[in-house]
Design brief:
The protein is an all-alpha fold and 519 residues long. 75% of the residues lie in helices and 0% in strands. InterPro entries: Put_ABC_export.
């Protein structure tokens, strides 16, 4: 087991060392940690006085949304026809080494705990941002939220791992996981039907009763964690302790089952590890099976420009052939946020905040990084900043599609006027451009050390700083000079455009011989 422990700590040390391998990435990492630590401290130290009832209702609502997200993630993982629990490198070491079955399984569980903790911390940062306006954030509540998030993710990942081993040993055991999911989802559906608004209260009344229904507390792990947090807010320590204790017992039982798995699963686990590693390699090289077999349509004519315009022509042609500007996940998130705002009666202004979150998560550099790994890009005779701007065109069209999809139902659902929608469109387009430009700066700073998690954290930190000029400008114009909101947002769009262009200049060295592979 000492060799496996050494492997785990060496991998962990390598991940941390990668973040601190250069002064720029080390400084940014420390700034991000300090910023979020200070933000949580400020939220706790300077909390406003709110009613206890508002805390209970808000905690119930946000915990139900979070439970639904983890449950959805667990369902998707369990229903996958083929998957893997380790990569090729780990499989060749732990399954071929002189380790007992229990040592090997214990190592996999330690990896599960690490992954659960990373997911939990990311989720907690997101939830705290959303809860801070309606919930009194206290140290016990934040710690309990971290603990409940860790337990739910561990339960989901450990259950998936146990079903994985169970099915490898006995293929007929897949019906056990199908039966488990059917019972769990049916019970939650019955709770929803039980609270259906037969009294004429409508969907809003149904959801309000469903969120507060004590019967949900009987749902294993998810209901128990919700009961624990709500009990903490209500100062009902008995409910809090029962919820966490029951969850610990179930997670401990799953751990025991995994450590005592019987049967021969090594060969299949290695084959699955080879398969998933090859899939990831192809995805990094953008030769994944999904891209190869992606459905495309024929186009009549295609015009190609010269220089940097050739890049725009190529990417526009790809968009025309694939007809894929908006992902299903983004569409679902927009509908969920629209439903939340409508049910809570928070209005169109609050809805714009949610759409900024969608734009922030959508402003990734995946498409641009794909082109940056193609060497002919650096041979195109044009200035680096023009080529980088050309690479941003498809991503900006994607941002525009997200803005359009988020606004199209607002007049019907939220009663937004045309002037409000145009003003919001200006604001969202400006922030989309800013988020995308900041993402390029993150890519320029981290290069090959970039990971999705670090990119999101750095982007959040830089974005919060770079939106200050926009905030000062719009607030000054609207409240200082009394200009209409539409005109103020138009000027704000110009300000964000200038800030984004400065970020583009800072990221331009990516195309002047200092590319992703230069580290």
């Amino acid at each position: 087991m000492s060799a496996l422990s050494y492997l785990f700590f060496v991998k962990l040390k390598a991940q941390i060392r990668r973040l601190f391998s250069k002064p720029s990435s080390a400084i940014i990492t420390l700034l991000i940690i300090g910023f979020f630590g200070f933000s949580i401290y400020s939220a706790v130290a300077n909390r406003e006085v709110m009613s206890a009832m508002m805390n209970v209702q808000s905690v119930q609502g946000w915990m139900m949304l979070f439970c639904g997200y983890v449950l959805f993630l667990m369902t998707i993982m369990i229903l996958q026809k083929r998957t893997a629990i380790v990569t090729r490198d780990d499989a060749q070491f732990i399954f071929a080494g002189p380790f007992t079955r229990r040592q090997t399984l214990a190592y996999l569980l330690i990896e599960t705990v690490e992954g659960s903790l990373i997911y939990a911390l990311i989720a907690v940062v997101y939830i705290l941002m959303m809860m801070s306006s309606t919930v009194i954030l206290t140290v016990p509540l934040i710690l309990s939220l971290i603990l409940s998030s860790l337990l739910m993710f561990y339960f989901a990942f450990a259950l998936f791992t146990w079903f994985y081993f169970l099915e490898m040993v006995n293929p007929r055991a897949r019906w056990i996981k199908y039966g488990f999911l059917a019972v769990l989802l049916s019970f939650i559906a019955l709770i929803a039907v039980r609270n259906f608004g037969f009294d004429g209260g409508g969907i809003e009344s149904t959801i309000t009763r469903f969120v507060a229904d004590p019967l949900f507390n009987w749902v294993p792990v998810f209901g128990w964690c919700k009961m624990a947090l709500v009990g903490l807010v209500r100062q009902d320590l008995t409910a809090c302790l029962i919820g966490f204790a029951a969850t610990f017992v179930v997670c401990g039982g799953l751990t025991f089952l995994i450590l005592n798995v019987k049967g021969d699963f090594y060969e299949q686990a290695i084959m699955d590890a080879e398969w998933i590693s090859e899939l990831r390699q192809n995805a990094r090289a953008h030769r994944s099976q999904g891209n190869i077999n992606e459905k495309v349509v024929s186009v009549g004519k295609a015009h190609f420009g010269s220089g940097a315009q050739a890049l725009v022509s190529k990417n526009i042609l790809i968009l025309r052939k694939t007809r894929r500007l908006l992902s299903l996940q983004e569409g679902i998130m927009i509908l969920i946020y629209l439903g939340i705002v409508w049910m809570n009666g928070q209005g169109f202004g609050f809805y714009q905040f949610f759409i900024l979150i969608v734009l922030f998560t959508s402003a990734t550099t995946d498409r641009i990084a794909q082109d940056l790994r193609v060497f002919y890009l650096y041979l195109i005779p044009d200035r680096p900043i023009k080529k980088l701007a050309a690479l941003m065109v498809p991503s900006m069209l994607h941002m525009a599609a997200v803005v359009f999809a988020s606004l199209v139902l607002c007049p019907l659902v939220l009663g937004a006027g045309w002037e409000e929608m145009i003003s919001a469109a200006f604001m969202m387009i400006g922030f989309g451009w800013l988020f995308l430009s900041v993402s390029l700066v993150c890519l320029r700073l981290m290069k090959s050390r970039s990971t999705p998690f670090m990119e999101q954290m750095i982007k959040m930190f830089l974005s919060l700083i770079l939106v200050i000029p926009y905030g000062i400008t719009v607030v000054g114009l609207m409240f200082g000079l009394g200009l209409p909101g539409l005109l103020a947002q138009l000027v704000g769009l110009l300000v964000n455009g200038i800030v984004g262009f400065v970020c583009l200049i800072l990221a331009a060295p990516l195309l002047s011989g200092n590319n992703l592979m230069a580290d």
